[in-house]
Amino acid sequence: MVLSVAMVAMLAETAAAQEAKIDPMTVVPDPATVATPKLDFAETPEDAADYDKYFYFHRDGTSFEEALADLRDCDGFARGLSSGYRYQEAPYPYTYTAAGVAGGLIANAMMSAIFGSAEKRRLRRVNMRRCMGYKDYARYGLQKDLWQEFNFEEGFSAEEEGKRQAMLAQQAKVASGPRPAAKELGL
């Protein structure tokens, strides 16, 4: 009897603790509390050459909540992508020897270290552009230093969830804010 009362009390505590946890993916902050990032800058040819990497989205007539949901949706598709660089089998019989295996391990580790992180960042940008373009958002170029204030790049490591959601909220504020004066880039 005492054991069952203790179990009920423990289950009640566990349920209360579960309810107290807040999922940062579902919290919609008040747009008035979200800092508006700086978007104005004097464009240089170097900036324009990097617009495939550094950009932001905007769609007329979109609420903050809708923009945040769209960004979270597209971010979900762009998370945890794997690089296309994988083990490549050699076209000769040395592949299955000890030297072939060791050489393959070393070569693949080097390829991953050299190309892997950059490729994952590129794939994330491409997925975000396609997904947000599909949702009819326009894309605008931005200077790298300004972009880094409210965006993140993921290579081999993921951004901490609280920081990620704060940056997505800033992106949503821009996406739902006034129409940019800059030139639209297209997909």
Write a concise synopsis of the structure shown.
The chain is 52% helix and 4% strand. The chain has 187 residues and is mainly α. The chain starts with a helix and ends in a 12-residue tail after the last helix.
Describe the 3D structure:
The mean pLDDT is 81. The protein contains 6 helices and 2 strands. A two-stranded antiparallel sheet has the order 1-2. The protein has a domain at 23-82 and 118-175. The protein starts with a helix and ends in a 12-residue tail after the last helix. The chain is globular and about 65 Å long. It has 187 residues and is mainly alpha-helical.
Q: Tell me the quaternary state.
A: single chain
Order of helix and strand elements from N to C terminus: HHEHHEHH
Number of strands: 2
Strand content: under 5%
Low-confidence stretches: none
Biggest beta sheet attributes: 2 strands, antiparallel
Q: Widest sheet: strand order?
A: 1-2
Class derived from helix and strand content: mainly alpha
Provide the gyration radius in Å: 23 Å
Separation of the first and last Cα atoms: 66 Å
- Tell me the overall shape: globular
Number of helices: 6
Helix share bin: 40-55%
Notable characteristics:
187 residues; mainly alpha; two-stranded antiparallel sheet
Layout: helices, strands, pairs:
Blueprint: H1 2-20, H2 45-49, E1 55-58, H3 64-78, H4 98-134, E2 138-141, H5 144-150, H6 161-175
Antiparallel strand pairs: 1-2
Helix pairs in contact: 3-4, 3-6
